[in-house]
Amino acid sequence: MTATALPLPAESPGWPGRRGRVDAVSAVLGTALVLLALAAALAPLIAPYDPAATDILAANSGPSPAHWLGADDLGRDVLSRLLYGARLSLLGPTLIIAAATVLGTALGVASAWLGGWFDAITTRVLDFFFAFPGLLLSVLAVAMIGTGFLAPVTALALAYTPYIARVTRTIAVRERNLPYIEALCTHGLGGWAICLRHLAPAVWPVIRAQAAIAFGSALVDLAAVSYLGLGVHPPSAEWGLMVAQGQSALLGGAPWQSLSAGLLIIVVVLAVNTIGERASDSDPAGVRA
What we know:
By secondary structure, the protein is mostly helical. The chain has eleven helices and no strands. The termini are far apart.
């Protein structure tokens, strides 16, 4: 007996406009972030100096033709260190949110589909992680693994997973109760196929917006870890570390390093938060964490 094909709309019921709307502000901010990421990737080609090269004679010097954004207390070019520092500063939050999104989406969809004891256990585990702030988990991870880049990234990825999972589960439960899901089951489509082809795409618009907003928070958290001396080690360039290293010079009247790194953190956070908020507002579901 040949199975009857079940016609489905391009967008599942209850989720019109899944692709959302891209406005001019989001396009401009997104382009700026892409250019910053390209500048970080091309830092060895466009940076005017080696980020670790010191020049004591230029220590704490202000902006000049030789050093456009000044030099730090060791005479290292601030612009070059910002460009190289963007690599770790942007890579870290990207890895954190990517891991949290994949794990959180998988847990949320699985909990919504399976329900029962699996949903109960998953919810309790997520609630447990909610009790621990990301910075606290980072400190614990550093205590067990040691300072560096991997420990805080891993800890923060675990800390952000419950936020993504909770939003995913809420949307997936709502989607699972729609009539077309029951129709798919009646026609013999397996649970894995339904989750991958229908539930996961249904939650993606809101998860995408949540991930963009969470990226800014992850960037700030990772910069805070580096500021506390628990992240990457000198002479590596990283924005949070640069803020900490330039603090003494800031009090001495040479704010170039701290202000430049801090301003970049603020600009990137505001940009990704704005993109995430506008993407969330353009989605009719409008589910927030």
